[in-house]
Structure formats: C-alpha cells, structure tokens
Write a structure and sequence with these properties.
With 182 residues, the protein is of the alpha+beta class. It is built from four helices and eight strands; from the N terminus they run βαββαββαβαββ. The longest helix is centred in the first third of the chain and has 30 residues, at 18-47.
Length: 182
C-alpha cells in the first residue's frame, strides 16, 4: 500500500519576513535559523509527541495525534520566540506565524502528508499575524474545553483555494487578555 488516509492535527509554522532577513544578513540569518530548528523547533515538536513531516528554509510541517498537543507545542514555540527576540531590534527579530487544523490527510509511503488537512493548516498559517497561532474551527473545538486559553474568534474566513469559508480562531502567546487580535 502506497498511501493511507488518517485523521491528524497538522501544525504549519513559517518565519515572517524570511526574504527580508536573509537579504540584510544571509549568513547570520541562516545560522540563527539552523540554531532555532535544532534548539527550539525540533525538540519542542518531539516533546509534544509530534513528528516533523518536512521542513523548508523558512518553515516546518508537523503532525500530531492530538490537537491539544499541537496547540501546546505552538504555544511553547511562540513563547520560545519571545524569549529569543528579547532585546533584539525589530528588524532582526525572527517571528513565527502558525496555523493548526485537524482533518483528514493522506500519508504517502515515505511519510509525507498531503490533502485538505495540510492545505487548510498552511492557509491558516498564511493569515496568522506575526507571533500568533490561527486555529480552524475543527482544531478549536478539540482544545477549547481542555486548555485554559483566551482565543479570539476571527469569524468566517475565505481561505485561498479552499472551497468553503472556515471559522478561524486566533491565539497570541504572552499577550494580555483581549489583546490586539480581536
């Protein structure tokens, strides 16, 4: 069998302004990103029982068996970024946008994931503000009563190349209640 369908919590994270950062100081930026992956991103995903499916220069696609684990991982990633950016000027900060969706995916024989579940998580990452986490309604329903979080309902959103609008929720780590997301 070359592929299998399954339900998974998908987390997609991306570095905001990667091209700008590399254009201003490519060597330092790439070294910082390598350190970020080895010291924060990969270990945090592993601690929360996730699996890195693939990474790009400025992003990562990961899979979790639980939406709660995916959201806790995202929160820890964003908290780690706040710590790492402390004291840096705005133009040198590395910030993440994260999207999380729970849905049906197709797992290829090599472990790669494809399908709407992945596409929706990627589209949610794309609409997230720097430093925030956007959740689909499906992910939100799985975590709302299990995690004590202040989330903002962003309403129905049309996501690029996704057939139907989707309700989206946003979470900002380290922000005061009712921060600038709502």
């Amino acid at each position: 069998m070359t592929e299998a369908r399954k339900l998974a919590a998908i987390l997609v994270a991306d570095i905001v302004g990667f091209s700008r950062l590399t254009a201003s100081d490519e060597d330092r930026t790439l070294a910082r990103i390598r350190a970020l992956r080895s010291d924060l991103v990969d270990p945090t995903i592993a601690v929360h029982r996730g699996r890195v499916v693939k990474s790009t220069g400025d992003g990562v696609l990961s899979e979790f068996r639980s939406g709660v684990d995916a959201v806790r991982c995202a929160m820890d990633l964003q908290a780690g970024m706040i710590e790492r950016n402390s004291g840096l000027p705005a133009e040198r900060r590395i910030e993440l946008r994260i999207g999380i969706h729970i849905g049906d995916v197709v797992e290829e024989a090599d472990g790669d994931l494809m399908g709407d579940g992945v596409n929706i998580a990627a589209r949610l990452e794309g609409i997230a503000k720097p430093g925030t986490i956007c959740l689909s309604e499906d992910a939100y329903r799985q975590v709302r009563s299990r995690l004590d979080l202040e989330m903002c309902d962003l309403g129905e959103r049309v996501l690029k190349n996704i057939a139907e609008p989707m309700r989206v929720y946003a979470l900002e780590v380290g922000a005061p209640a009712r921060g600038h997301l709502c």
